[in-house]
Design goal:
The protein is of the alpha+beta class and about 325 residues long. About 35% of the residues lie in helices and about 15% in strands. It has 3 domains: about 15-80, no CATH class; about 85-110 and about 255-305, no CATH class; about 115-145 and about 170-250, no CATH class.
C-alpha cells in the first residue's frame, strides 16, 4: 500500500489489495492522497485522472467524507474509463498503404574492422615482464578460502542460519586461464585467441611471474591469481604485447536495403493532452502519435500542404535510430 515515505508523483491507478475498515480510515486517506498528487503543474497542466479499482472502503469514503466537503466525485464503470494507450498500425483496411508507403533507409556500418592476432613467442613474454623492472611475486601457501557466516536475530541474538561463503574468485588454474583470456580479449578487442594465449599465460604464471616454479594445479597459484597484483602484472605484460601483434583489416559493407513502414508491427503509444494522437489521410498508419503541440500542428500542416503526397511519423520500436558509437 502507498503509505508514509512514498514520494512518487506519477500515480495514476490505485489497486487496493487489503481489507480496510472504518478503523483504518487514516490509512485509506493516505493511500488515496498519494494518487491525488498532481504530476504536472496546476497552472497550464493537463487534466489528470486517478483510477481506483472498486473497493468497499473507498466507495463509502466517497459518499460520506468527500461529499460532505462538497467535492464532486465521478464514479465511472471500469469499461468506460478513458483510454490513454492506443495501438498504432498500418491501416490496410481503410487506406492505400502501398501508395502511402515511404521506404526508410537502414543505417549500417560502412566498414567492418577485423582484428587478427599474430604469433607470439614466449621469449617475448619474458622480455615484456623484464621491461617492467618488477621482482617476481611471492607465491605463499594458500590460505583458507572460506568465511563462516552466522545470521542472528537482531533482538535475541539467536542464531537463525549458518553458511560457508567461498571467497576465491578463481577456483582452478584452468578456469583462471579462461578468465584471463576473456579479459585480455575484451581489452584488446580480439576474439578467438584462446589457442594462442592459453599456453602463454600458463607458462608465464608457472615459470616467470612468481618467485618459484609451480603448476596450474597448485592451490597457492590459484589463490594468488585472484589478487590485484597478479592481475595487474598479467595485464601490464600482455596488453601492450597484444596491441603490437594485432593487425586490423578493414572491409567495406554493402548498404542494407531500405525498410518499409508498411511492414512495421503494431506498437503502443500514449494519447494525452501533452502527447496527442491525430488522424491523417496522408499517412499509412491509423493514427499519428505526436510529442507536444508542435508535432500536432505540423501533422495538420502536412495534411494541408499541396506538395506533400504522404508522410510517416518515425516512431515505435522499429523506427529509424542512429546509435551512438565510440571510436572503436
Amino acid at each position: 500500500m502507498l503509505r508514509e515515505g512514498w514520494d512518487v508523483r506519477n500515480v495514476t491507478t490505485i489497486v487496493p489489495l487489503r481489507a480496510l475498515s472504518a478503523k483504518n480510515r487514516v490509512l485509506g486517506e493516505q493511500v488515496l492522497g498519494r494518487g491525488l498528487r498532481r504530476i504536472t503543474p496546476p497552472v497550464g497542466g493537463a487534466a489528470e485522472i486517478v483510477t481506483v479499482v472498486e473497493h468497499e472502503f473507498f466507495a463509502r469514503f466517497y459518499r460520506e467524507e468527500l461529499a460532505a466537503e462538497g467535492v464532486d466525485i465521478d464514479v465511472t464503470e471500469v469499461s468506460r474509463v478513458p483510454k490513454t494507450t492506443v495501438s498504432i498500425y498500418p491501416d490496410e483496411a481503410r487506406k492505400d498503404v502501398a501508395a502511402l508507403d515511404i521506404p526508410v533507409p537502414q543505417i549500417t556500418a560502412g566498414a567492418v574492422n577485423t582484428a587478427t592476432l599474430g604469433e607470439i613467442d614466449f621469449d617475448e613474454v619474458k622480455k615484456a615482464f623484464k621491461r617492467l623492472g618488477l621482482p617476481p611475486l611471492p607465491l605463499e601457501k594458500a590460505k583458507d578460502g572460506h568465511l563462516d557466516y552466522e545470521g542472528r536475530h537482531l533482538v535475541t541474538g539467536e542464531i537463525l542460519e549458518k553458511m560457508k561463503i567461498h571467497l576465491p574468485l578463481l577456483r582452478t588454474g584452468v578456469g583462471a586461464v579462461s578468465y584471463f583470456v576473456k579479459e585480455l580479449e575484451m581489452v584488446a578487442h580480439l576474439r578467438g585467441t584462446h589457442a594462442k594465449l592459453a599456453p602463454l599465460l600458463g607458462r608465464f604464471w608457472t615459470e616467470t611471474l612468481f618467485d618459484r616454479q609451480t603448476t596450474l594445479s597448485d592451490p597457492a597459484l590459484v589463490a594468488r591469481l585472484g589478487d590485484g597484483a597478479a592481475r595487474e602484472c598479467t595485464r601490464a605484460v600482455f596488453v601492450p604485447l597484444l596491441r603490437r601483434k594485432t593487425t586490423l583489416a578493414q572491409q567495406r559493407v554493402a548498404a542494407a536495403p531500405p525498410v518499409s513502414p508498411a511492414a512495421w508491427r503494431p506498437f503502443q503509444a500514449t494519447d494525452s493532452e501533452t502527447h496527442p494522437v491525430k488522424t491523417a489521410r496522408r499517412t499509412l498508419f491509423n493514427l499519428v502519435p505526436c510529442n507536444r503541440r508542435l508535432e500536432a500542428a505540423f501533422t495538420d500542416f502536412l495534411e494541408r500542404a499541396a506538395d506533400v503526397a504522404a508522410f510517416v511519423k518515425n516512431a515505435g520500436p522499429q523506427c529509424l535510430r542512429i546509435d551512438y558509437l565510440d571510436t572503436n
